[in-house]
Amino acid sequence: MIAISLARSAFSGPNSSQPFFRLSRHSRSWSSYGLNSALAGKGILVQDQAFLNLKSTELFQKGATLAEPLSGLPIHVRGHALRGSSEISKPQFTKLLKQVTSHISSISNIYVHDGAIGSRSKCNVKIRMISDGPSSILAFSNIVWETTTRAISHDSCPLTVYAAESISPGVGNTIGLGAGGDNGFIAADIERSMLILCGKAFSDTNGTKETLVALSEPVIFARGGLPLPARLLVSGDSVVLLFAPEDVIQNCAAFLVSKDAGVVLSSEGVMPFFRIGNTNTNGPHIFKSPSAIVLVTSDDSRTIPSASKLSPGQAAYHFLAGHQNGKFVAAFHKGPSSIDPLELGKALLCMLKEQQIPSFLVNAKGIESAGKDIVTLVESALSMNIPPFQTEGGELKRRYKSFVSEKYQQLPEDFSF
């Protein structure tokens, strides 16, 4: 923990009318001007103290509380996030940012926490949260991986999160976003790598995670990682990337490493976006390269076998379509995203070929609510000699083609049903 306290001295410089400041010692460590300077660069002026990376016990001592979980708060995103959010204009975000930084700067004690999306890796993304209260810091520290302050300062594309717990509930209305209720809202600017949590928005864990992922995707992708909306299933020595409908995932949650959507696939292996439960290991939490990827569909037309093997091109095609019993979900992802699914599909195809990762399609129709049965079906697909994917009749294939051709332009020849 680092606490910075600027105490106004009774002395001034001999040739200056400005007050002279000194650093005081506080809670086991000497402070420095470095953090204050870094915060000033983010529009935050420290009035009294800035507490850095407090432990949970220390946050509780400062008055942090475990807020009641919220969900479904308004999400406003500026950039190329196409799903799951409404837009916020550049002038609106700029005005909101100014009001939030001014508000936080008016608070005596400021709280700062450094973390990362993805465990230690060249493909992870560093994040710094700046808040006017300890409760949002507590919530944030429980979902992000640990990192060092030095890593934040040396990262070329760190994200900045502002949490204004005590800002006026009407701030959204004053900048033209409309009344969002008393609980607050989430706003993000992908181009500026900034996220703003107003009011109790920090309690909307799912909304916060989804928006952090949307902000992180371009950075992860540029660093050679694939931000995928998959879950990790570890069975013995096998590490499986599982793509499935959300209801299927929730029923399988007890068998998964984490029910949170999102992993980073890279040449180093696979790592979850966010912390696993309440653990935070000292070393890298990176799983080995996947033994397989499994795409789960739910189709009652009897044209898709219970389990079949896919070629890399077929896996990429079915990844783009995300078929769920007559409906299609692009790239198995309904939340906000800043990555073109087609570009992600192309990169996935290359990764499957380069790392020679086998792929399977599993039809969970009839057992969607039986998580154990789905896991058993997935495990059997890995251990048995599963035949290549084939369907009976052409109606389903035509529906796939209609969705894919309308959604994506100039599909590569390697992509096939």
What can you tell me about this protein's structure?
It is a single chain. By secondary structure, this protein is of the alpha/beta class. The protein folds into two domains: 31-224, Phosphoenolpyruvate Carboxykinase, domain 1 (3-Layer(aba) Sandwich); 227-407, Phosphoenolpyruvate Carboxykinase, domain 3 (Alpha-Beta Complex). It has helices at 33-41, 56-61, 90-105, 134-141, 149-154, 171-174, 205-222, 246-252, 312-321, 341-354, 371-383, 395-407, and strands spanning 2-12, 19-23, 49-52, 75-78, 86-87, 109-117, 125-131, 145-146, 159-164, 184-189, 194-199, 226-228, 231-235, 238-243, 263-266, 269-272, 292-297, 307-310, 323-324, 327-328, 359-363. Strands 1, 2, 3, 4, 5, 6, 7, 8, 9, 10 and 11 form an eleven-stranded mixed β-sheet that branches. It has a five-stranded mixed β-sheet with strand order 13-14-17-21-18. A hairpin with a 2-residue loop joins strand 13 and strand 14. Helix 8 (246-252) crosses helix 11 and helix 9 (312-321) runs antiparallel to helix 10. The longest helix has 18 residues, at 205-222.
